[in-house]
Amino acid sequence: MKKKIAVLAIDDPIGNYFIEELKNIFENTIDVDYYTPNMVNKPYISNVDLILYTDPSILIEIIDNIKCNAPILMMKRTISKEIIDALRLIEGGKSAYVVNINSFMANETLATLYRLGIKNLKLYPYYEGVVNPKVVDYIITPNEFACIKNLSGEVINIGNRLFDTSTILDIIAYLNIERKFAEKVIKKYASRVPTYWRGLKNTLYDKKMLLGQLEVLLNEFDNGIILCDEKGLIQLSNLKASEIFGLEKEYLEEEQLNQLVSRNKELAILESPEEVNGEMVKFNNKHLIISVKKVIYDEVYFGRLIILKYYNELLREQNQLHKKLVGKGYYSKYNFEDILGNHSKLVAAIEISKKVANSSSAVLLIGESGTGKELFAGAIHNYSERKNKPFIAINCATLPSNLLESELFGYEEGSFTGALKGGKMGVFEKASGGTLFLDEIGEIPLELQARLLRALEEKVIMKVGGDSIISVNVRIIAASNRDLEVMVNERTFRDDLYYRLNVFQINLPPLRAHKTDINLLIEHFFETFNDHRSIDEQFMAFCQNYDWPGNVRELRNVIEYMLKIDDGKFVVENLPASQKKRMGLKFQSKEDKAKFVLEILRDLSQNGLATGRRSIHEAFCKRYYKISESEIREILKQLADDGVIEIFPGRKGCRLKSSS
C-alpha cells in the first residue's frame, strides 16, 4: 500500500507544484494531496502518514481540520544549483530585495541564499506591506508577485524553491522507505540542489584525478592499507604497507595476494574467506594487527580491503587518545567493580551487561531514578572494545527540542540566530567510534525521533542547517525510568525507534528489591565521605523498612545528610524531614508513639489478627523502627489508664474502646 502525504500550501498552484515534485522524486511510490486555507468547506485531513507544510501561518489556519496523529513536518527548501551559480556571478557590492508572500517566507528565502554562499549581494526581505522600500539593483523572487510592481530593479525569477536535501531525508525516515530505493532517491535528487554530492560527482568524471587523490589520502594513514580486486590482484597500497612488507610500492602493487601469502605463510589470514577484525599475528619478529574487510556494493563483491597495524604502535596511540579524552571529559570513570551489591537481581543485571558489552547493538536500561543507569552505561562502555574511545552522556530531558536537535547533530554556521561562528559539532560526531549514552530517552520530542531513528539505522547524520551527510560509528546505550511500551501504545514514542533501541533490555532493580545490600552501600558511603559512624538499631530498622523511592541516590543523600548534622551515632530522630514525612515519623513525644501503637492495634483488629503485646511490638518494629517490649507495655498501660483501650489477660490481648 502506498504511503500518503498531505501538503499544506498557500494556494492551488503551489499545491499542484508540490504534488508533481514529490511524485517525481519518489517515482509515484506515494500518494500526495494538498490543502489550502482558501478551500471552500475545508475537508478533514485523515488517514495520512505524513503532513508537510510550508509556513507556520498556514498550519495554524488548517490545524483544526487535521484529524489524525500523523507526524507534522515543516519543509526546508533550497534553490537550484543553476540559480545559485548565476547569482554568484553578479558583481559584488550590489543590493537586492528578496520577495515572497509574507515576512516569514521572505526572511527564510533570504537566509537560504546567505547559507548557500551568496555573499556578493546585500539582501533585504520584501513582502506586501513593507513601507518606504529601498532603491535596489535587483529583485529576487520565486514568482512575479503583484507587490513588486512598486519596486525598481532587475527582476531575477528563481522559480519555485526545491526541497532541501534534509527534508527529503526526513520524509524517507518518517515513511520508512526501503533503503535501496532511498539511496537511489538521494543520489538522483542531490544532482539538482547544492549539496556535498557535487564535488564527488565532478571528481568521478576524472578517474586519474580520483586515483591520485586516493593515493595521497592513503599515505596519510598510519595503518598499512592494501586494496585487492575480486580476483586477488593488489591494485592499491600505501607507503606504510610497503614498509611493513619490505617491498617497494610498485612491486607490491600488481602482485597477486596468494603470491604474497605463499612467501609469508604466517600471513595466511589475509586470504580468509570471512572478514577478519583485529587478529594478531607474528610477522618479521613483530606483532601485527590485521583486519580484512570485504568490499561489497549493491550485493556485488568487488574485492577486499586489508588494514595492517603494528601492535606496539596501536597501544601507544590508544594511550595517547585516552589521555586526550580524559582531558576533554569524554570518558566514563565507572567500572562494574563500582556497582556494589550481592543480591541475585543486581548480580544478574551485571552479568547480562557484561555479556552484551562487546556488541555494537543498542542497549536499553530500564530502571527508576537513582538505580544507577549512568553507572551501568559507563561500566558497559569500559568493559567493551570501545573503552579507549569517547563516552558521552546527554540527558534528553534537560533541553528544549530545538536545542536538543543541535546538541545531538550539531549545526552549521548561520543556521539560526545565535549560532556560533564556524558551527558546532554534535555529540554523535564527538562520540564516533565510542558510546553515546542517551538518558531519559522517553523525553525526546516526537518530531526528533525520526531523525534519531535514521541516525541509528543508517549511521549517518546531517547537521542543523547543513546539506551534507556525515557518517558516524556510535554504540547507543539508552535509559528510561518511564514505560516505553506504554508510550508506544499512546503514540508518544515511535514503535520503530523503540524496537531499534530495545535490542538488549536490562532491568535495574530498585533498592527496595535488594535491601540486603544496604549495609554494604552504607559502608561504601562512609568510605566515600571518609567518616565512619556507629548505627543505632532503630536507624537500621528504618533503612530496612523504608521503600527508598529515590533508590541508591536517596540512600547516599541520607547518609551524607546524617554525617553533616549528627555528631555521633546515627539515630532515627535525626533523619531528614522528607524521610520522616513519608514514614509518618515525628519522634517528638510519647503521644506520637502512642498514635503509632493505636494505628497498629486498629490494623490488627480489622484483619482479625492477634492484638497481644508481643504482636503489637513485632508490628511496630517491622513498620517503623525497633522499640523495646517494655516501652510498648508502658504505652499500652497509659492508653488503658486514659480509657482508650482495654487490656485483657492471656491471649485475648487488647481492644479499642468504641469511642476510639
TrEMBL record:
It comes from the Bacteria. Pfam families: AAA_lid_14, Sigma54_activat. The keyword ATP-binding applies. Keywords: ATP-binding, DNA-binding, Nucleotide-binding, Transcription, Transcription regulation. SMART domains: AAA, PAS. Residues 339-564 form the Sigma-54 factor interaction domain. This is Sigma 54-interacting transcriptional regulator. It comes from Fusibacter ferrireducens.
